[in-house]
Design goal:
Helicase, Ruva Protein, domain 3; globular; 11 helices; Spore_V_K; 2 domains; two-stranded parallel sheet; single chain
């Protein structure tokens, strides 16, 4: 992992950007562990979070970063106890990546970690989108946005598809939501953590359209798409959790389909979310196939057969819209 660290003009802000290398196909979901001498080892909030993180497929760079966050917070406590300075850093973040790459899940885990480490008083998680923030008349948007910020105090406010707040231009009420958000970040400073999430290119363009935003979000994390082996492992986890299993033929069929999707669908592919939809649909198809039988064995109840996996209705594009203009100049992402 290559990491660029840049100090900005704003006090106590460190910009962290992860440049992900090509995926390591030999290492899927490598657990993040501590050595016996590591002060962060043993029982505690990090271990609880890592247990959840290690259940996720991939995201090894993200897991390492969360360990860094924990270590920094813990050492800060020890510095203060030793009478040394331990200045607070801004923890507002940008999560960039396609749907189904784990952005919301990681944000939820961070909210728990920050609560346990004393960064946040409550550690609750508030998730909103454009419709929750943008009102119907002048002043309504500011009111709605402030209301959600107040609800998030002591916790994490997660705004999904944050770039959509800027899609209407200067006359759109979304700009009012952005301005209110910026003011709230000043008014409440370290009382909550704001995470903006969305597609990578759209988020870059969004930050470029509002020059005051990048410096307020010192941590930018890129969530990469899953590769084929990771998607198959995700499918296996989902099936096992539901107490099903894929037959050998069904497994081969799913693998071939996902391989084809990865080759043909770059911007519309839903990653883990897409796999979940396929598995849930297959479970329903299996139920329809079995319902007419008088006697059903335990093995039949558990097994998803090749015929239960149908992909025709998923062959079309997902229909996700994008306001981003590909002809816009690519911004420098700090």
């Amino acid at each position: 992992m290559n990491r660029r660290v840049m100090t900005g003009n704003a006090r106590h802000q460190i910009h962290v950007v992860f440049d992900h290398p090509k995926k390591d196909f030999a290492s899927l979901s490598r657990p993040i562990e501590f050595s016996p001498s590591d002060p962060a080892g043993g029982e505690g909030p990090l271990q609880d979070c890592l247990e959840q993180l290690n259940q996720l497929v991939g995201l090894n760079k993200i897991k390492e970063f969360i360990k860094e966050i924990y270590a920094w917070l813990e050492i800060g406590k020890r510095r203060r106890a030793a009478g040394l300075s331990a200045e607070q850093q801004v923890l507002h973040m940008i999560f960039s990546g396609n749907p189904g790459t784990g952005k919301t899940t990681v944000a939820r885990i961070l909210s728990k970690l920050f609560k346990e480490m004393g960064v946040l008083s409550k550690g609750h998680f508030i998730e909103v989108e454009r419709a929750d923030l943008v009102g119907e008349y002048i002043g309504h948007t500011a009111q709605k946005t402030r209301e959600h910020v107040r609800k998030a105090l002591g916790g994490v406010l997660f705004i999904d598809e944050a770039y959509s707040l800027a899609r209407g231009g200067d006359k759109d009420f979304g700009k009012e939501a952005i301005d209110t958000m910026v003011k709230s970040m000043e008014d409440y400073k370290n009382d909550f953590v704001l995470i903006l999430a969305g597609y990578s290119e759209e988020m870059e363009a969004f930050l470029r359209l509002n020059p005051g935003l990048p410096s307020r979000f010192p941590i930018h994390l890129q969530f990469p798409d899953f590769h084929l082996d990771e998607l198959m492992k995700i499918a296996a986890q989902m099936v096992k959790k539901r107490e099903y299993r894929l037959s050998s033929a069904a497994r081969d069929k799913l693998r071939k389909h996902l391989q084809q999707k990865l080759l043909t669908s770059k911007t519309e592919f839903g990653n883990a979310r897409y796999v979940r939809n396929l598995i849930e649909q297959a479970v329903r198809h299996q139920a329809v196939r079995l319902i007419g039988k008088r006697e059903i064995s335990r093995e039949e109840l558990m097994t998803i057969q090749c015929e239960d996996l149908r992909f025709d209705q998923y062959a079309q594009k997902s229909g996700a819209s994008s306001w981003y203009n590909e002809k816009m100049p690519k911004p420098y992402f700090v």
